What we know:
- 31% of the residues lie in helices and 24% in strands.
- The chain has 229 residues and is of the alpha/beta class.
- It folds into two domains: 4-101 and 183-217, Nucleotidyltransferase, domain 5 (2-Layer Sandwich), CATH 3.30.420.40; 102-181, Nucleotidyltransferase, domain 5 (2-Layer Sandwich), CATH 3.30.420.40.
- Strands 3-2-1-4-5 form a five-stranded mixed sheet, with helices on both faces. Strands 6, 7, 8, 9 and 10 form a five-stranded mixed sheet that branches.
- The longest helix is centred in the middle third of the chain and has 18 residues, at 75-92.
Amino acid sequence: MNNPENANLLAIDTSTKTLALGLRFGGDRLIKSSEMVEKSHGQLIIKKIGELFKSAAIKKQDLNAIVVCTGPGSFTGLRIGLAAAKGMAQALDIPIIDVSTFEMAAYQLRSAETPVHVIVPLNRDECIVGKVEHGCSRWEQVSIVRYEALPETIRHDAVAAVGFDIAQKIPGLTNEEFSSRVQPDAADLLYLGGEKLIKGQVADILTLEPRYLQKSQAEIRFEQNSKKQ
């Protein structure tokens, strides 16, 4: 790759119920798509990626790197997005760049004047919470919190819910809310991925996994069954 600043990049975000895809090409051109997925990202992702390349009038072989959101977020969605990204990166022999949900949120909330607790749904009773401030996030400060304990965790700080309506979980919430700013956006993912590519911050495709704080029930059952065999 001669000039990473002009690299052709594909962005994939399946961390929420929105399938967000983007393609940067020709140095400064960008197209993206965003679609709510009712059942599975797997039913649409390959088709939608193909439509992006067709709209851009370029071939997959023209790609220089792939950017993928690694969560946290939807267990199944993240697996599907990462599988697609890895498959294409291996087939084309190009680098893959990972961007976490909290890196995305920190960038999208970079103009916020106060700290913001970013909240990602985990299951019916729990969520994943991380504080972003001045455009930065720290993964070691991300934790799992029960919804009933959220008021004590966030106190009077601003909040931003990713992919769900926080008012349904915490009725009467009076904290300043920035949820509308942390929507899946392939353009932001392309920007962050492009910056990492310029710095040489690419992922190891063999070890890259979704950013989970705990395993899904399906993964736990799979491991338990494997031990019995």
